[in-house]
Design the sequence.
């Protein structure tokens, strides 16, 4: 399918790109969970403190406790209710966003297919290196300079100018996958780009709860990255006011 | 450099701030030679446009000299004397490509704010709050102009600064107001608000074929300018019953095209003003839509209401029944600067319009706070204060 269809998202099944459950997402409050806790905690605290309402405060509070959990590797909630996160099924989170870009399908596809270009518009990616025709190495920055996470990924599906899907390999710091589809918008209105990002937070009930809380944050990130892609493609630059003068300096 | 900063509601200060620099390939730096106050700035000063931050540089209607260009700038060069549109357009999105520049998808750096408030975000505007991109404004010695190739226009030889500066915002806004009316032969056009934008709307209405133009305001000096420079018949709404007068002047038909060049801080008389002011004070409505209500009531059946006065949020007691049952057409929007500026510069160069009479006070930037005070209180017959940084 390469023409935009409004019922598309209902028909669209992305189960096939779900990241695999690997050894790393099953171990108990180990590296992965600590990293996710720390990343998620920092994000929640940051977004929570920006929201001047009860939800914001709740987000900030949960964020703070996650930061603690991430930093220490100890989860007081798990401890209190006697949960071993390793014994529970993990849940994949999946976010889909679309945007219309006034550029031809092939141009957009070609830019995205050069995976090295992704950090130009995906804010949290530091570097992507193409290691072979299908194989790549990814480095992502964590917020607030906590550090970086790395993984290898394979392109698992590829239809020229239409679809690209990738998935992290077993043993990654964060199990994740992505798919992007390029469809003609009606009557020369450009291309509808639909991106789906999927990742698997650490196992267990707490992990699932974390996932629910993190979902809006990641939704926002995917939306912003997609918008940055649009801006870069349509104008060759991404609008900014960072570094302009003000009386605040 | 020196810049006029917003530091709170009705609090402006001239401050020392860092000089701007090129941040994106399509940027230019312009040395500001003239920068005008605008009625829409008063909404910022009065606190009706949220998302202002302490220290923001205001001002959006300006001209100057290009002193630096980014590597992506192709049409401009150092030394060019340019007028710059107040609304930023990227040139590459669907809206810019179809000449609807103020709907630009890409120039607003904070689209999430307006997406929450309006469903979708419009373009960035210089010096007009963080909801509109947070761009530093033009009441400063220098300004960074993003998408410079699209928003900056060389001023033809022979057009003086005093006229050119108003092709940045007031003239294109007024022209678009008249253009949206779809004026036909024999039409009477009424313009509420005889400030800068209103004056330009009146003159534009004639340029686009209006038979008669009527101006409505409460300041006699502004009405006098409308009469002399824009050949408008004038009504002072504090002295006459506007609806009755308009009907009488048009043989009972009502005016064909009605332009709101006032917006959300309209004044009116009597109970309606008290009601609107009270509701606005407690933020139950963000606009006082007295002009809009009157325009809808006055407009002839099947006529057009064209809105360029700025509205920010919600209004109350909107006469929808009158609008629907009279089959009115509503047209509105922030102006498409890049669409109109080139032809307006040509019209000024050709002597069809000379907007320079609107410049009543040419002051230095150091007098910024007093300039706005005078402009707001409309003392000393002030129509426009223009700063020469």
Sequence:
């Amino acid at each position: 399918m390469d023409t935009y269809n409004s019922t598309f998202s209902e028909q669209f099944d992305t189960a096939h790109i779900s990241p695999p459950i690997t050894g790393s997402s099953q171990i108990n409050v180990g590296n992965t969970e600590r990293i996710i806790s720390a990343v998620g905690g920092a994000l929640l605290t940051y977004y929570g403190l920006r929201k001047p309402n009860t939800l914001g405060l709740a987000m900030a509070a949960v964020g703070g406790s996650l930061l603690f959990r991430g930093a220490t590797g100890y989860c007081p909630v798990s401890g209190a209710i006697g949960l071993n996160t390793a014994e529970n099924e993990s849940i994949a989170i999946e976010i889909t966003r679309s945007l219309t870009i006034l550029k031809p399908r092939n141009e957009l596809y070609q830019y995205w297919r050069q995976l090295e270009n992704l950090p130009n518009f995906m804010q949290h990616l530091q570097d992507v290196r193409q290691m072979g025709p299908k194989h790549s190495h990814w480095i992502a920055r964590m917020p607030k300079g906590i550090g970086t996470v790395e993984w290898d990924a394979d392109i698992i599906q590829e239809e020229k100018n239409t679809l690209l899907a990738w998935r992290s390999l077993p043993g990654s710091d964060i199990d994740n996958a992505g798919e992007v589809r390029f469809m003609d918008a009606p009557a020369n209105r450009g291309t509808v780009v639909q991106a789906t990002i999927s990742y698997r937070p650490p196992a267990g009930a707490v992990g699932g709860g974390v996932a629910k809380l993190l979902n809006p944050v990641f939704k926002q990130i995917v939306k912003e990255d997609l918008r940055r892609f649009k801006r870069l493609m349509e104008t060759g630059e991404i609008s900014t006011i960072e570094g302009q003068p003000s009386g605040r300096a | 450099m020196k810049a006029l900063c917003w530091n709170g509601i009705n609090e402006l200060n001239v401050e020392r701030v860092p000089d701007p620099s090129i941040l994106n390939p399509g940027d230019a730096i312009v040395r500001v030679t003239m920068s005008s106050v605008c009625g829409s700035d008063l909404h910022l000063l009065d606190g009706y446009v949220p998302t202002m931050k302490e220290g923001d540089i205001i001002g959006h209607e300006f001209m100057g000299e290009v002193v630096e260009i980014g590597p992506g700038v192709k049409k401009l060069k150092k030394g060019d004397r340019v007028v710059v549109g107040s609304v930023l357009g990227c040139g590459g999105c669907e809206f810019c490509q179809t000449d609807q520049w103020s709907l630009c998808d890409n120039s607003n750096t904070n689209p999430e704010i307006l997406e929450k408030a309006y469903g979708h975000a419009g373009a960035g505007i210089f010096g007009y709050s963080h909801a509109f991109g947070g761009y530093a404004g033009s009441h400063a010695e220098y300004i960074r102009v993003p998408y410079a190739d699209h928003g900056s226009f060389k001023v033809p030889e022979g057009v003086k600064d005093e006229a050119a500066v108003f092709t940045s915002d007031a003239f294109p806004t007024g022209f678009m107001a008249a253009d949206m009316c779809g004026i036909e032969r024999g039409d009477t056009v009424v313009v509420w608000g005889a400030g800068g934008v209103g004056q330009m709307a009146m003159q534009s209405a004639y340029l686009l074929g209006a038979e008669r133009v009527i101006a409505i305001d409460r300041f006699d000096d502004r009405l006098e300018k409308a009469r002399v420079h824009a050949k408008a018949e004038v009504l002072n709404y504090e002295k006459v019953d506007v609806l009755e007068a308009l009907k009488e002047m048009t043989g009972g038909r009502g005016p064909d095209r009605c332009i709101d060049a006032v917006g959300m801080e309209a004044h009116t008389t009597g109970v309606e003003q008290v009601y609107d002011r009270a509701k606005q004070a407690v933020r139950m409505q963000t606009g006082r839509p007295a002009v809009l209500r009157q325009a809808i009531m006055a407009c002839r059946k099947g006529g057009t209401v064209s809105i360029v006065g700025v509205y920010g949020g919600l209004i109350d007691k909107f006469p929808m029944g009158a609008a629907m049952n009279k089959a009115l057409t509503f047209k509105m929007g922030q102006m498409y600067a890049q669409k109109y500026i080139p032809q307006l510069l040509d019209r000024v160069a050709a002597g069809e319009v000379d907007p320079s009479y609107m410049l009543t006070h040419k002051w230095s930037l150091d007098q910024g706070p007093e300039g706005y005070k005078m402009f707001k209180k409309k003392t000393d017959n002030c129509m426009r204060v223009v700063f020469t940084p």
